[in-house]
Specification:
Length: 421
């Protein structure tokens, strides 16, 4: 690679690759360093909400993701006995937020992103370790580049993007006094199931809320089924035999097709991960020439499905500010913190509240939650959808999108929440 200031990305997850593509398209000389030996993401599917789709529009991938939307006429929230607590309206959601929810296999999205980078830009089996966050040039001072240790030696860069995950070593270097993410109190399982003969039929998308546990089922555009579950458990606990049997113990008596999905899933394909989240936001998302991105900056519970969406938002907002002609003074990291810290803090807090609601275990609290959910559903779809106002209706800075047509909405083309200055 030649030409342009140097940007080094630590971590080749969805957020890191999106940042790499966006910076490459702006004219930066990008290199990505990934610890794993290959770009084979651990995980099943990822949900890309309308805000994430609009972020991906910036790098030309929005429509490719929208092609994965599997429209369904019905869906909603159920109880473990199968009774519906609330029905969702896909058309109302699309009207309010400018699109539907796309479920994409992580490997497919990684392939789409990787294809937009030069072949020599991505280095696998090469963990990047931040040594010096660097310092932008300023009045009377020349500044210095950031320094990262890689498998090929130390590398200097005018901009470093640390997308190195929830346990981010870069974050610990930048903010050694911050406690970082803490265990959220529950663990999650994810699985993908085939349904080649279509025996499960239309399979309405749903989440099922029980006492201290939840299950979700969604069909992908290609016919496969993505399912996930969450339940309280001690940090680090694992099944005594295998995680498929653990799911059967916890969810085997819940409504169809949950037991059948678990039974049909090979044990090795069930993924389990404890959930860690920030209880106290970072004071900033940058130091010097280094920017924290995604889970490294704002790990959040999956309760709103926004973790990946916030990472791709981070990536395109950073690239928006990262003018290659200003690389010496490097104002992009500070601008990124200014734009992203308030928003991700808001989404993080909402996600934590949603997680507490869906995993509540006290019988009286469960009854109150279910009663309120059913009552809100009866008042119409837009009332329930208000929970995602200011989240799913986000647009990237510097882009113009048509206003959502739902009543009372205002055009939002600057990346801020509607109605905020």
């Amino acid at each position: 690679m030649s030409g342009g200031p140097r940007a080094l990305v630590i971590g080749a997850g969805i957020g890191g690759l999106t940042a790499a593509v966006a910076l490459h398209q702006r004219g930066w000389q990008v290199s990505v360093h990934e610890r794993a030996a290959s770009l084979e993401p651990v995980g099943a599917a990822i949900s890309i909400a309308p805000n994430g789709q609009r972020a991906l529009d910036v790098i030309g991938l929005g429509d490719a993701v929208r092609d994965q939307i599997a429209w369904t006429a019905e869906g909603g929230i159920r109880r473990p006995d199968g009774r519906w607590l609330a029905r969702t309206d896909a058309a109302a959601a699309a009207e309010r937020f400018g699109g539907g929810l796309a479920l994409v296999h992580r490997a497919h999205l990684v392939d789409l992103l990787r294809a937009r980078l030069p072949r020599e830009a991505v280095h696998t089996g090469s963990a990047g370790r931040l040594l010096d966050p660097g310092e932008p040039a300023g009045p009377g001072r020349p500044g210095r580049p950031a320094v990262v240790a890689t498998a090929d030696g130390e590398r200097e860069a005018e901009l470093v993007v640390a997308a190195d995950g929830v346990a981010s070593p870069a974050r610990r270097l930048l903010f050694p006094d911050h406690p970082g993410p803490r265990y959220a109190g529950f663990t999650t399982w994810r699985l993908m199931a085939d349904d080649p003969d279509g025996r499960l039929g239309d399979l309405p998308a749903h989440e099922t809320w029980g006492s201290g546990a939840l299950w979700g089922t969604h069909r992908l555009r290609d016919g496969r089924i993505y399912a996930y579950a969450a339940a309280p458990a001690p940090a680090g606990a694992r099944a005594p035999d295998d995680e498929r049997r653990e799911l059967l113990r916890r969810f085997g008596t819940w409504h169809a097709p949950i037991p059948a999905l678990i039974e049909d899933c090979p044990p090795r394909t069930v993924l389990r991960h404890d959930v860690y989240t920030f209880r106290r936001p970072l004071p900033a998302h940058h130091r010097g020439r280094t920017v924290l991105l995604g889970d490294a900056a704002h790990a959040m519970p999956p309760s709103l499905g926004q973790g990946g969406n916030q990472a791709v938002e981070d990536a395109v907002v950073l690239a928006h500010h990262a003018d290659p002609d200003t690389a010496d003074h490097c104002p992009a990291p500070a601008a990124h913190t200014r734009d992203r810290l308030p928003r991700t803090t808001d989404v993080l807090r909402r996600s934590r509240r949603a997680g507490a609601l869906t995993t509540v275990a006290n019988p009286l609290a469960v009854l109150a939650r279910d009663t309120l959910t059913a009552a809100v559903s009866r008042l119409g779809p837009h009332l329930a959808l208000r929970a995602l106002d200011g989240v799913a209706d986000w647009s990237p800075p510097g882009t113009a999108y048509p206003s959502p047509t739902a009543a009372g909405r205002s055009e939002n083309t600057d990346g801020r929440r509607p109605g905020r200055e």
